[in-house]
Amino acid sequence: xxxxxxxxxxxxxxxxxxxSNVVSGYTHVSExxxxxxxxxxxxxxxxxxxxxxxLRTGRTGVVALIVPEIDVPYFSALARDMIxxxxxxxxxxxxxxxxxxxxxxxxxxxxxxxxxxxxxxxFSPLVTKLELLEMNSPTKMPLVLxxxxxxxxxxxxxxxxxxxxxxxxxxxLLDRGRTRIAAIGAQPLEQYATPQxxxxxxxxxxxxxxxxxxxxLVREAEHxxxxxxxxxxxxxxxxxxxxxxxxxxxxxLAMGAMRAVFDAGFSVPEDVAIVGIDDIEEGRFSRxxxxxxxxxxxxxxxxxxxxxxxxxxxxxxxxxxxxxxHALRARESTAIAQSP
Amino acid sequence: xxxxxxxxxxxxxxxxxxxSNVVSGYTHVSExxxxxxxxxxxxxxxxxxxxxxxLRTGRTGVVALIVPEIDVPYFSALARDMIxxxxxxxxxxxxxxxxxxxxxxxxxxxxxxxxxxxxxxxFSPLVTKLELLEMNSPTKMPLVLxxxxxxxxxxxxxxxxxxxxxxxxxxxLLDRGRTRIAAIGAQPLEQYATPQxxxxxxxxxxxxxxxxxxxxLVREAEHxxxxxxxxxxxxxxxxxxxxxxxxxxxxxLAMGAMRAVFDAGFSVPEDVAIVGIDDIEEGRFSRxxxxxxxxxxxxxxxxxxxxxxxxxxxxxxxxxxxxxxHALRARESTAIAQSP
DNA sequence: TTGTAAGCGTTATCAT
DNA sequence: ATGATAACGCTTACAA
Lengths: 340, 340
Description:
Oligomer: homodimer
Distance between the termini of chain A: 79 Å
Largest interface: A-B, 47 and 47 residues
Helix content of chain A: 40-55%
Order of helices and strands of chain A: HHHHEHEHEHEEHEHEHEHEHEHEE
Domain HTH lacI-type (chains A, B): 3-57
GO molecular function, one term (chains A, B): transcription cis-regulatory region binding
CATH topology of the largest domain in chain A: Rossmann fold
Strand content of chain A: 15-25%
Number of helices of chain A: 13
CATH superfamily of the largest domain in chain A: Response regulator
Keywords (chains A, B): DNA-binding, Transcription, Transcription regulation
Number of domains of chain A: 3
Shape of chain A: elongated
InterPro entries (chains A, B): HTH_LacI, LacI/GalR-like_sensor, Lambda_DNA-bd_dom_sf, Peripla_BP_I
Strand order of the largest sheet of chain A: 2-1-3-4-5-11
Pfam families (chains A, B): LacI, Peripla_BP_3
CATH architecture of the largest domain in chain A: 3-Layer(aba) Sandwich
CATH class of the largest domain in chain A: Alpha Beta
């Protein structure tokens, strides 16, 4: 069996209190005593039991990061930054993926999950704000929301301005002289906020440019995957009146769409300009490289982790809304201006 | 404050034992009693404290997955499958990235980390087997190794046959009539097993084909990133005698290499055929699509999780070595046979 | 500065 | 089938 605090105390002929002080507190221990206890710890190869410590202190030192899918590049980049940010606050990260499963999201949030060994939740939700309000109330687990814009100020959240980001992307296509601009990533269900907001930005940009929205140019995508982008773009290129640009709601959609355009016998950006959102590294090495709206995952990670740490320390503080910056990165996929 | 087991017992006028039985055991409880206790639980909105349960049972229900970088597509795909596999065994996954930091690897393995709230470790290591042997001994935390081939049978591990995988990739290039085959991803330090094994496979395939190894065609790469692949391929294409094929030790290297070949004014596969290892989804949508050796991450996840669960239940069982299957996927990047 | 002892919220071992 | 109670290993008043 592993040695316990008591074993060390017995071995060193001191009280548990003193050993505990040496192990964690370092307060009021004479140097001689410290060295003495340390020797016993060494000899018995003692390691403090984190579970016992947690039961006593009420802190696990772990926060949960909940995302739809960890293998989506945007989320894995976010996870990377989150793990780093958490480390600077002394936390570790447990990652959970909901896999687009609403039940799972709710279980995690309501604390119905049997093993909630963490102090707080960083949650990138799929479902609407309305449902969320009810959800988290029973458990009162510290919570920071990620990636959505509008939560009525009831929760801490770090978001990007989705409407504006979409608008900027479409405006970039307009600036390149494109006028027949398609969109991939819309979703009919109102409960998904991200597609709603990006659709809104798309429509705003076109409307402000005096261009009418054509429903046949707006394509749905269920999972923001390469395959979804491929299918949607294939359909667009089969249209009698093809688009001269495609705004994809995510870079992954855009990667699929680019390949579809080529497979249909057209080229990017000559025939069709393409722009995405997320600025994943993949798009910087693709051919052509992908123009995209960059979201600052490091910023999102740092600020949200800082919020969560603050809330864990003081559950009653007022919620804060933070908007992460975004910036358009123009690359080859929108490089050529359309001659009118 | 949250309600405890004792609160429920008091409220229901029964013993803690009975409440505990209702909550978890379900053994020997009359239906009437169950209903009665359940009502009290409902009324007090009682949720069992997982930390207390853990202290008592010695099980957290969490396993740690340790990888170099979570945002490398191969590892995030593995993480996705691991989270799913763990769920079928009743475990959750905490992800840690070592970020190529040997210190961090050692801390995790030796249990020097302060918050080891997990029952076992799934470890995808960078460092050599030799170091590992010493590392895990003091803590005896259940451990399953991933991705390496040769660990002397002292640990459970699920690996691919790296030598064979590399050999198959190079053989595929030979089959396409390529003879001047470069390699990207070698590493000088002997302690990194993966590059050593893949280098060995590369050399074996060439030697068997009667082709001499040319040192200038073997390029190092530190991080198996797109950028490293780009740089290495750029150097290769600047050679007086250019290669007609490149074997990249990872798909990410290959994605960078492909872009570099194009930027140097050549084309894939006409001038240079390219093959990678990992078979990440990105390579199926790139232009050209990437030929690659597919590693079965779902298989690796399921088998390793099964091993770990078994070892947690019985720490003394004999270690097992499992080789995960691999298979070459020929795609466009090696589509054209070289005319001699 | 160090020792004593009371919990933290469960589960498990005795009984009954 | 249920009840009392002792651990699990640690932190921290309270004393000394």
